[in-house]
Fold this sequence. Notes:
Blueprint: H1 2-31, H2 35-44, H3 50-57, H4 61-74, H5 80-90
Helix pairs in contact: 2-4, 3-4
Amino acid sequence: xxIDAVARAIARDSENRVVRARQEDVRxxxxxxxxxxxxxxxxxxxxxxxxxxGFDLGISERTxxxxxxxxxxxxEADSIADLVRMASxxxxxxxxxxx
Length: 99
């Protein structure tokens, strides 16, 4: 019984270490973003289109696309869905509502 309890505790600790390592990796990636890219990130995870993000931030759609590309690249994300998962790990909330 004691050995089983210790084995479960070790397994749980191992799982927790993996989760913490993933969260730290995401935090490191997020720290690479500029303040503007962080704003774009928050808007992208809300599901806004480039045009909507640009309007909200007072920048052109073209500039929004550039920031979007940089955010995806720096965060090493393949999609907005990846960014949403990362935002959840970081505790970042989406901005506003999708129009």
